[in-house]
Structure to design on (256 residues):
């Protein structure tokens, strides 16, 4: 073996190549991070608008989102809070023991595990200053994954304006039908509460429009019993006393 082909030189060239590649990759990651964060924020805003039935194709997402007000809510008290600011990540907070609580198993019907103490909510004000729509983050476990989405309510805090999931890994064609526009179109106009309790949920098969329960039920997902149950459970959890029920009550009474 010639001196040019020595093991030391080969390892040296390989090491130098690794260092150069690492520098290039690291530099690219740093330079691209602002663009990635901007795209992430834009996608979140698009999902919020879409869940509330407010997304208009052909118009700037930023322009449409300008009518939406981001607020933070202490879930225990149901009151607005300023203990966190813009840039707060509720999903990250749920993993931080100092910013969340471990949900007892007998309460954890949605299998969220840990629940952030503060939630982000999105409010749409009308010309008179009153809230026209209330958009709430919701999540819970389906068959294979945690479904993350937004549930939009009308100003009464009871009538559904829309529901959309932006992150999940449910089976395409089965539980993945939560993304089907035809299924999502079944939600607007449904009611959440009946006699003060969360009644909204999915039923097996199609809902009979003449049924006395029609206002509180949505068609189940065909062949996806566990995903359907998961959607029902996450609505019951997040719209219940351990979720947004205290906040919605305060909002209706002007006490938030």
């Amino acid at each position: 073996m010639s001196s040019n082909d020595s093991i030391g030189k080969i390892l040296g060239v390989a090491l130098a190549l690794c260092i150069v590649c690492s520098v290039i990759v690291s530099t690219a990651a740093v330079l691209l991070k602002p663009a990635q964060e901007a795209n992430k924020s834009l996608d979140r805003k698009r999902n919020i608008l879409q869940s509330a039935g407010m997304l208009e194709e052909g118009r700037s997402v930023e322009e449409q989102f300008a009518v939406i007000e981001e607020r933070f809510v202490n879930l225990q008290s149901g009151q607005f809070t300023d203990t966190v600011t813009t840039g707060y990540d509720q999903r990250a907070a749920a993993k931080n023991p100092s910013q969340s609580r471990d949900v007892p198993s007998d309460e954890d019907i949605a299998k969220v595990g840990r629940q952030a103490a503060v939630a982000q909510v999105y409010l749409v004000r009308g010309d008179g200053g009153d809230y026209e729509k209330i958009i709430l983050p919701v999540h819970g476990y389906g068959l294979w994954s945690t479904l993350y989405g937004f549930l939009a309510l009308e100003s009464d805090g009871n009538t559904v304006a829309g529901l959309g999931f932006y992150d999940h890994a449910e089976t395409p064609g089965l539980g993945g039908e939560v993304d089907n526009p035809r299924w999502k179109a079944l939600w607007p106009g449904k009611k959440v509460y009946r006699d003060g309790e969360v009644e909204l949920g999915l039923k097996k098969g199609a809902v009979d429009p003449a049924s006395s329960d029609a206002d509180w039920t949505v068609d189940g997902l065909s062949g996806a019993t566990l995903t359907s149950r998961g959607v029902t459970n996450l609505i019951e959890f997040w719209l219940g006393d351990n979720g947004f029920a205290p906040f919605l009550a305060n909002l209706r009474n002007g006490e938030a």
